[in-house]
Every structure is written in structure tokens, then in C-alpha cells.
Amino acid sequence: MQDTEKTIPIVEDQIDINSDAEIPGNTHLSNPEADTENNTVKLEADVQEQKDKYLRLFAEFDNYKRRTAKERLELMQTAGKEMAIALLDVADDMDRAEKQIASDEDINHVKEGVQLVFNKLRSVLQQKGIVAMASLDTDFDVEKHEAVTEIPAGEEKAGKVVDELQKGYYMNEKLIRFAKVVVGK
């Protein structure tokens, strides 16, 4: 029995693993309530800060939506202003032509004046990016044409546009009005 006492030496400097109160850095183990209160206060402050940020961001986004809706409405109301101003010049020319028609007996002067007004209108439309579509003698295309009727036109004109009842138009290379056409069969 004396041998067993010698094999297990007793050391007084050893740390007891069941007691951590004396170990530096482990105060949370000896006083868990104070640490929990600190964490709770800190978490509540973080939550309040995030709520404040959220409310500010939401208010900013709401203001953005209102501002863009107002700008969009103003843009829609004045979108055609430039075109209308350009067409007013043509309307003035039409009024002058109408007065000239009433007072002038020479049909050639009247034709010349009316042709000038037509040319000015076409020029204004072209300046604004509006161009007439060429449809006659082209293949019928459902993406560009609206067939009003079909007429017998011979084998060489089958599936082609033989007459144009209403011109189609492009605005800045985008189709804005289909051409109403007669198609040969």
C-alpha cells in the first residue's frame, strides 16, 4: 500500500477544473446575470437603431416614389409640347392658305400654296423622327400591316400589298401606326 501513495503525487499548484471563479477572463461564469443585462441593453439599443434606420429609409423611398410620380405626370402632360409647337407653324400656314384660296381665283397659285403647306408638314414630321412606311408592292407583314381586304391580283402579286388605304408611320425607327392595306391573293 505504500507503493500507491508514491505513484500519485499531490501538487498544490494545480488548478481545480470545477472552480473557475479565480481564473481571469471568466467573470461571466461567476456573474451571469450582469452580463445578460448588458447584452439585453446592447441588443435593445441595436434594435432601436435598426428601426430608426428602417424608418428613415422607408420615408426616403416614399418621398422618392412621390417625386418620381409627380415628374412622370408632368412629363406625360408636356410630352407632346415640342411636337405641338412645331405643328402650330403648319397650322398657321394652313390658315394663310385658306385665306388665299378664298381670295385668289388662280387655281395654280392655290395648288402651289397647298403643296408648300404639305411639304412643310412632312418636313416637321421628319424632323421629329416621324417617317412614313413604304408598303406598296412589298410582302404583307402582320407586324407592320393591317389587312383590310384581299383582292385577286394575279400570281405575281399574291401575298403582296397592292393598295395602301392608310399609311403606316415610324417614330425614331419604332412603329407607331400600322399601315391599312389591301393584299393581293
Mind explaining what this structure looks like?
With 185 residues, the chain is an alpha+beta fold. It folds into 3 domains: 28-78; 80-128; 132-185, Roll (Nucleotide Exchange Factor Grpe, Chain A, domain 2). Helix content is 55%, strand content 16%. It contains 5 helices and 6 strands. The chain has a 3-stranded antiparallel beta sheet with strand order 1-4-5. A 3-stranded mixed beta sheet has the order 2-6-3, with no helix packed on it. A hairpin with a 2-residue loop joins strand 4 and strand 5. Helix 4 (81-103) runs antiparallel to helix 5 (107-127). The longest helix is centred in the first third of the chain and has 47 residues, at 32-78. The chain is elongated, with a radius of gyration of 44 Å. The chain starts with a helix and ends with a strand.
How much helicity do the residues have? 40-55%
Radius of gyration equals 44 Å
Strand arrangement across the biggest beta sheet: 1-4-5
Q: Report the major sheet.
A: 3 strands, antiparallel
The number of domains = 3
Mean pLDDT level: 84
Give me the secondary-structure category.
alpha+beta
The CATH topology of the largest domain turns out to be Nucleotide Exchange Factor Grpe, Chain A, domain 2
Corresponding CATH architecture of the largest domain: Roll
**Overall number of strands:** 6
Helix and strand sequence: HHHHHEEEEEE
Termini separation: 123 Å
Query: Count of DSSP helices?
Result: 5
* Principal-axes shape call: elongated
